[in-house]
Specification:
Elements lengths: L1 E2 L14 H19 L13 H6 L5 H21 L6 H45 L6 E2 L2 E8 L10 E8 L2 E9 L7 H14 L6 H17 L13 E9 L4 E7 L5 E4 L2 E4 L21 E5 L5 E5 L1 H4 L11 H5 L7 H15 L8 E8 L12 E3 L3
Parallel strand pairs: 1-3
Antiparallel strand pairs: 2-3, 3-12, 4-5, 5-6, 6-7, 7-10, 8-9, 8-11, 10-13, 11-12
Length: 384
């Protein structure tokens, strides 16, 4: 699993790059020498304030204080060479430089503390991400799998998108889902659905029965919302359930209000829409018994690309949506890992690095021939 987030590390004040530390040091020496060799009517000493001010951009409060102290030393030297320490002009310059250095150190201190706290929060967020979305295996049975998760919130690694796989008997079951909303507020519902899937995937013989069980779990979770939550009736989870038997060139899918996957075969891309999509999980009361299964051919060499609506709803500067089907046609002959990486990079470029919603990608390729010659055409039926 690939998560497009990087943890911010707190600054290491005494480990800044030497080239950057050299800049204020060179400025102090240059200003001091220039002032010494300038006419008495020219005073360059006040320019020494640039050194500690510049240090705040890359150093911590200790380094800023050190540079400020060196600048003060240079100012004292200039005062001794030009009229002595008792001159009002030199006293005022020393006081101003001391105040500025102290102010810069305070700014650096609070900035570094905030960055340390942010790094800790992101570390916890990343740990929660690993617990919520456990890394998927590269290979499972006769399948090659690659995935990616892009969080919309800059200070979070997790959100309302989810995916998981479960190997049960001679088949692999997959879920890709999207909780209404995004970011940290959607984590509870995502965790509930993932936990239910990991358990229920091993206990229900058909994909329709699995979908109904997951719907019941989501409904139970939603009833636990406080009555003060006026939007409880608007909470739901779109999901796509996929089942890939090991015996037979076939796969089965249940669409629960989720965007249809793309089937990539021999360089061609086909959208696997369902004639009878079901409502999202948590809304089964709208249409009882709605979870019909759609079967389609899935042969060795075929690739399925599953995704959440954060991918296709990403906009560029002209407000145009990301054309996923058009773009993946360019990489239709790539393996799952390369395909996911291409889409991820292209998506971020399209949205200029600012996604409006969490986005997840999951590519699955059948790498080995099934044991049976069974072939099913596209159709809808009530059992997996």
């Amino acid at each position: 699993m690939h998560i497009r987030q990087h943890l911010a590390r707190p600054r290491q004040p005494w480990r800044s790059r030497p080239a950057l530390v050299a800049i204020p040091l060179v400025l102090i020496v240059a200003i001091t020498l220039a002032d010494i060799h300038s006419p008495e009517s020219v005073h360059l000493g006040p320019l020494l304030v640039v050194a500690p001010a510049l240090t705040t951009s890359f150093g911590g409060y200790l380094l800023t204080g050190l540079i400020g102290a060196l600048a003060l030393g240079a100012q004292v030297l200039l005062a001794l060479l030009h009229g002595g320490m008792t001159a009002p002009n030199h006293i005022s310059q020393l006081i101003a430089l001391t105040i500025l250095t102290a102010f810069c150190m305070v700014v650096c201190f609070f900035r570094d503390r905030r960055e340390a706290e942010l790094a800790q929060v992101r570390s916890v967020s990343e740990a929660a991400q690993r617990a919520l979305l456990r890394p998927l295996p590269d290979h499972l049975g006769g399948l090659h799998i690659a995935s990616s998760y892009l969080a919309a919130e800059k200070e979070a690694c997790i959100g309302g998108d989810l995916y998981a796989v479960a190997r049960t008997g001679d088949r692999t079951r997959v879920i890709v889902g999207d909780v209404r909303g995004k970011g940290l507020a959607a984590i509870g519902e995502a965790a509930t659905l993932l936990g239910s899937f990991q358990e229920a995937a091993h206990h229900h013989p058909t994909l329709s029965a699995l979908a109904e069980a997951l719907d019941r779990s989501v409904c139970r979770y939603l009833t636990e919302f406080p009555e003060a939550d006026g939007e409880v009736q608007e909470h739901f989870i779109t999901a796509l359930l996929l089942e890939i038997p090991e015996h037979g060139p076939v796969a089965r899918v249940v669409h629960c209000g989720h965007p249809p996957p793309f089937l990539i075969r021999q360089g061609n891309v086909v959208s696997l829409t369902s004639p009878r999509p079901a409502p999202p999980l948590g809304m089964s009361g709208l249409r009882p018994g709605a979870y019909d299964t759609h079967a389609f051919s899935f042969r060795p060499g075929d690739t399925l690309l599953l995704y959440t609506d954060g991918v296709v709803e990403a906009r560029d500067s002209s407000r145009a949506f990301y054309p996923l089907e058009e773009r993946i046609a360019q990489w239709a002959r790539c393996g799952p890992r390369a395909l996911v990486q291409h889409v991820e990079q292209d998506l971020l470029a399209h949205a200029d690095g600012a996604l409006g919603d969490d986005a997840a990608l999951l590519a699955i390729r059948r790498t080995t021939a099934p044991h049976s010659g069974l072939h099913l055409s596209h159709r809808v039926h009530g059992a997996a």
